[in-house]
Amino acid sequence: MSDDWKAGVVQTHVLKDGLLARFGEGKVRIRQTRDRAWITVKGPRTGISRAEFEYEIPLQEAEEILSLCELPHIEKVRHMVPYGGLIWAVDIHQGPLAGIEFAEVELEDPEQPVPLPPWAGDEVTHDPRYRKATLLERAAALTQPASPEPF
């Protein structure tokens, strides 16, 4: 992905995500910005779609719930960039996932045509290496202390 998206940024948020629970192919996530927080329940994927239910929760409760989540938490800066009649979210990961950048867009219909911005990189929607669970495993491996050598 090139940096050309930066000229179109209309809004920026710092996000912290924690994985509270996994069930089957779904998950429950807590997300927090500086002044708001949500709990999100996501069902299994069907193609590029999945059921998703999101509820705003008090910020103080989110901070307490984040302490119950698996580590590491995902930290990223999200930039909102309009392109092709859609609003793209460009995520720049921080912490153990620093250097990973994604551009994604929410669609009204899974069959909706998606004009890819010229600054977007490779399409990775169906690549399991870029799923959040895989990234969390990678981040956990990077943040865990090395096991002591056996005697």
Automatic annotation (TrEMBL):
Transmembrane segments: none
SUPFAM superfamilies: CYTH-like phosphatases (SSF55154)
Classification via Pfam families: CYTH
PROSITE patterns: CYTH
Gene3D superfamilies reported for this sequence: Hypothetical Protein Pfu-838710-001
InterPro entries noted in UniProt: CYTH-like_dom_sf (IPR033469), CYTH_domain (IPR023577), NeuTTM/CthTTM-like (IPR012042)
Domain CYTH: 1-137
The protein, known as: CYTH domain-containing protein
Organism: Teichococcus vastitatis
